[in-house]
């Protein structure tokens, strides 16, 4: 091993950044052996360089000048673990223009404006890797991009947010309400003080935009993703799911349209059968289920967040781009040749669980069934629960478009036999 | 897209080969878009070129001259789906010497003599990829080799043989004996007419040798792998596992030694807790569970065998080596810098479930406990089952070396209070 060392600049030193710095230091010998030359830390850019930090890095390595560090002549690879769109985008584009390869964990930026980053990498002839941006330590993007490059992906179904999975797992285990389960998650540190990004599905939406782009060789941004969070999921929904052998999960879904070119990309709570491999993904674990024409059903499971798992993914990418540098090559870049349009949510086809509070008298079912039939939504099963003022009807449909279902629900609300539409939830995943 | 097409020679056209030929033909446009130039079939070598085959390939493409095809001037990439050590090794080494990159699904050859293939690839400056050799369509080797390149793998626990997993699943579900479950597997086509390679663990041993080599950056061959099959697993073992909240699986295990440099590589039936993610891998599915320092627990799940899943893995590798050809580069080759020794089975540390038929009288447990203590094997739990002539003691140990456990069992057999050592089975996997 006698090549010139490669020098790595790190932008950011929060929870993930500290874990990256520690893992980089503790695995220096292994990294050198795997790459073929030593990897050296060139510096770490942070807002407050003089603050004491629990990382084995000399104080002199810290700088407040991120842009200067990212474009410095002696830097080969830039690792970005700051997050957010700006100034991260400016720093990374500048770094690539200056000939640096980039490894980033920044899902917001990639999902909002990945095209700008990919274009900068292509123009500069450098690498851009971002395994850590989706599902933390679970190897996912590389398998999708490379291992399945000879196959055709039909559907990606993921549990990619640990906070919401923890909350829904607790609701399922204990019968707790959403509010109670959120309070518990907050107390245990599984939920942020402001849980909006997780609970309302923004985090999952960014991740599924990135997954969809890679799986379908298309450009998908977070703005293209239909999004519903879990704050309206009730204990009654969870109990109703259980009654039909299902559990409720916040699913990130990207699937090829069955009726022409296009892809549906969405995040929403859904009931899935308990026999589905995703149903047993508990608490803060993540998993992504992939259906491909030839490979069939695959699942990738592990810790989707946390400093160390994310650092593992970051350093895996650092080794890849460093090996590429040593070999004088660049990895395969963006693949967007399919360029599929993201179809509106109304055209998405799935199944639905509809729970209605009804008046308990003869002829109610006929009136309700007529409303479904009017919009060509076929009913797979009906179950009556309770009597008198507690009478409820629970219907599960066959596949229908979201638009047809919405129109049906609008009609149901106008029926005098329907006291209230208690809940509407999608049903996903074959058993 | 105006580069010269790349030409692919295929060796073999059995179940996997036919699936590769069909997928190659049906996805030609996608493959071209992903690689950047068209991929063309140069020919298929088979023993009987004139036999009718259900593949969309012109009869003139078939040849009996595998060596000639593999080294032909117009061939860029050689795909080998013949299996077995010779003549496959001669063909592939000759192909690499002639400058062809190689994609192979041949686990026997890689596990028996991977070093020869890797050396040939290195010397010729060509690619050697073999994702399909382990766990069929599940992306596994690329994630281990690349995604986890910044991490340190501690343990790989796999269910990598669908036939034995089907048999053990049936024994667990129905209480069937091994013989009954094997008969059912044979009738359904899940077991070969001669099931030795699967049932006795040879297939799993080859796969875990390949996994261990990659996970631990070392050279491991199938001859290094300790191997026990499942034919001695009884319905009583399965029932006993169930009584302690476990299920029996044939596990392929590679793990770092805790007491110095080395790795334990083995295949044997083991009890694992039902709460372990591997416990719910049913029937012919495969899954590999990986524990890494930073990433934590990961699992890769899918169809481990079958023509189409394996073809998916083969073509994923074909796209990778074709992209490398187009870019004028070679992927990262073998990484064996750790060069860990494979430790003898006697030094392997694990836990044990020991079932003893005993005489039903006072002082039996004291005599038995003394035998364990004599070899420093600590007992975690004891359970008595039955009385009189049916009296049995079921013991589970804390961690101990295989050598200490074997010596203990030898001593137990000499005790007059022990009528028979009914079974000894390892216990793996934290709950």
> What is the structural class of chain A?
alpha/beta
Largest sheet of chain A: 11 strands, mixed
Helix content of chain A: 25-40%
| Total discrete domains of chain A | 3
- Which radius of gyration of chain A do the C-alpha atoms yield? 24 Å
Number of helices of chain A: 14
CATH architecture of the largest domain in chain A: 2-Layer Sandwich
CATH class of the largest domain in chain A: Alpha Beta
Biggest chain contact: A-B, 57 and 57 residues
Q: What would CATH call the homologous superfamily of the largest domain in chain A?
A: Dihydrodipicolinate Reductase, domain 2
Number of strands of chain A: 17
Chain oligomer state: homodimer
Shape of chain A: elongated
Mean pLDDT of chain A: 95
Q: What proportion of the residues of chain A form beta strands (DSSP E)?
A: 15-25%
Task: Could you tell me the CATH topology label of the largest domain in chain A.
Answer: Dihydrodipicolinate Reductase, domain 2
Poorly predicted residue ranges of chain A: none
Distance from N terminus to C terminus of chain A (CA atoms, Å) equals 53 Å
């Amino acid at each position: 091993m006698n090549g010139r060392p490669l020098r790595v600049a790190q932008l950011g030193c929060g929870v993930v950044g500290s874990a990256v710095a520690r893992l980089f230091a503790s695995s220096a010998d292994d990294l050198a052996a795997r790459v073929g030359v030593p990897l050296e830390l060139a510096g770490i850019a942070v807002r407050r360089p003089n603050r004491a930090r629990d990382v084995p890095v000399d104080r002199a390595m810290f700088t407040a000048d991120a842009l200067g560090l990212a474009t410095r002549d002696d830097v080969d690879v830039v690792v970005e673990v700051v997050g957010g769109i700006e100034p991260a985008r400016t720093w990374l584009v500048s770094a690539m223009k200056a000939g640096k390869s980039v490894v980033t964990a920044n899902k917001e930026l990639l999902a909002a404006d990945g095209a700008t980053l990919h274009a900068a990498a292509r123009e500069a002839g450098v690498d851009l890797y971002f395994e850590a941006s989706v599902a933390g330590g679970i190897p996912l993007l590389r398998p999708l991009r490379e291992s399945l490059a000879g196959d055709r992906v039909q559907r990606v179904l993921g549990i990619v947010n640990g906070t919401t999975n923890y909350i829904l797992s607790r609701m399922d285990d204990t019968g707790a309400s959403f509010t109670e389960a959120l309070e518990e998650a907050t107390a245990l540190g599984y939920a942020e003080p402001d849980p909006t990004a997780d609970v309302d599905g923004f985090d999952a939406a960014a991740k599924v935009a990135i997954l969809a782009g890679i799986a379908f060789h298309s450009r998908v941004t977070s703005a293209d993703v239909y999004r519903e969070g879990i704050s309206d999921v009730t204990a009654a929904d969870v109990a109703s799911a259980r009654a039909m052998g299902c559990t409720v999960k916040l699913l990130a879904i990207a699937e090829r349209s069955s009726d022409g070119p296009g892809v549906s990309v969405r995040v929403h709570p859904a009931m899935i059968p308990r026999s589905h491999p995703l149903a047993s993904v508990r608490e803060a674990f993540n998993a992504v289920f992939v259906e491909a024409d030839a490979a069939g059903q695959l699942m990738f499971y592990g810790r989707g967040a946390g400093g160390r798992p994310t650092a593992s993914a970051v350093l895996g990418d650092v080794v890849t781009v460093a090996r590429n540098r040593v070999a004088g090559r660049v990895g395969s870049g963006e693949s967007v040749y399919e360029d599929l349009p993201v179809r509106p949510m109304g055209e998405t086809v799935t199944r639905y669980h509809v729970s209605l509070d009804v008046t308990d008298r003869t002829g109610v079912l006929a009136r309700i069934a007529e409303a479904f039939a009017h919009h060509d939504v076929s009913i797979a099963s009906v179950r009556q629960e309770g009597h008198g003022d507690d009478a409820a009807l629970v219907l599960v449909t066959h596949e229908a478009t979201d638009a047809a279902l919405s129109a049906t629900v609008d009609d149901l609300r106008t029926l005098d036999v329907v006291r209230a539409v208690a809940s509407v939830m999608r049903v996903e995943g074959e058993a």
